[in-house]
Amino acid sequence: MKTAAAIVALAGTAGLASADLLANWTFETSVPTTAGPHAAEGGINAGGSFATGFHVSGATAYSNPVGNGSFESFSSNNWGIGDYYQFTTSTVGYNSILFGWSQTASSTGPQLFDVEWSTNGTLFSTLVDDYVVGTTTWSSGATNPLSVFAPVALPAAASNLPTVWIRLTNQVTPGGTGGTNRVDNIMIEGTLVPAPGSLALLGLAGLVARRRR
Question: What angle do CA 142, 109, 83 make, to 5 degrees?
Fold first, then answer.
C-alpha cells in the first residue's frame, strides 16, 4: 500500500519538466453537490474537461465541504467497492501526461484506492495500485501537504488523444454508509509536442552550433 508521501517518492522527477496545465478542478465555481459532470475551472482544455462521481448506491449524497486550502471540494458518502471519481480531458498535441490531486477521508470513509486510466472510457488499467488515503483535516487556509498526491506519469499511450479518462476507484467496504471521501485541486498536465518545423529548426541549430566549434 502506498501513502501520499510514497507516491511523491514514486513520482520522482515526473513533475520537474516544463508542463502546461490541461485541466484543473478547484470546485470553487462548480460547487459540486451532484455527481456532475462538473467542468474544470482552469487549464487549456477547461471547457471540455469534466469531473464526475459514480456510486452504485442510490442513497449517495454529494456535497462541497471545505477543500485542501480552499473553500470547496468534491465529497460523497455511501461508498462501495468499485465506486469512483472520474476526470476527463483532451491530450491532443501533448505528451508526458501527469495527474496530481488532493484527497482525504472521514474516519469511517474509504481509505484505499487505485488510480486507473483509459483511452476509451470502457477498459481501464491500473496506474497506482492500493494507495492509502489519510483522514487528514482540511481547512480553507493553508494546504495540508499530507493530503497532496504528487503528479504521477501516465503511459505514453495517453498522449495526443481526444479524451483520456482517469479514475480514483475505491477498493474497500468502509466502516459506515455515512463515511465520506473527498477530493480537491485536481490537475492534469502535459508537455507540448513540438511541430515538425520546430524540430527541424532545432536540428539545424544544433548542426550550426557543432560546425562553429
Answer: 105
What pLDDT, on the 0 to 100 scale, is given for residue 175? 85
Give dist(CA 98, CA 94) in Å, integer. Answer: 11
Q: At 7, phi and psi to the nearest 5?
A: -70, -35
User: Is pTM, for the whole model, over 0.85?
Assistant: yes
Cα 116 to Cα 123, 124, 131, 154, 198: the distances in Å are 10, 6, 12, 10, 34
pLDDT in tens, 3-29: 665 665 455 444 445 899 999 999 999
Q: Are 54 and 86 in contact (CB under 8 A)?
A: yes
pLDDT per residue as tens digits for the range 118-134: 999 999 999 999 999 99
Domains of the chain: 4-212 (2.60.120.260)
β-strand partners of 186: 25
Q: What helix, strand, coil percent values describe the chain, rounded to 5?
A: 15, 35, 45
CA distances in angstroms from 135 to 46, 112, 146, 174, 195, listed in the order given: 30, 11, 10, 13, 45
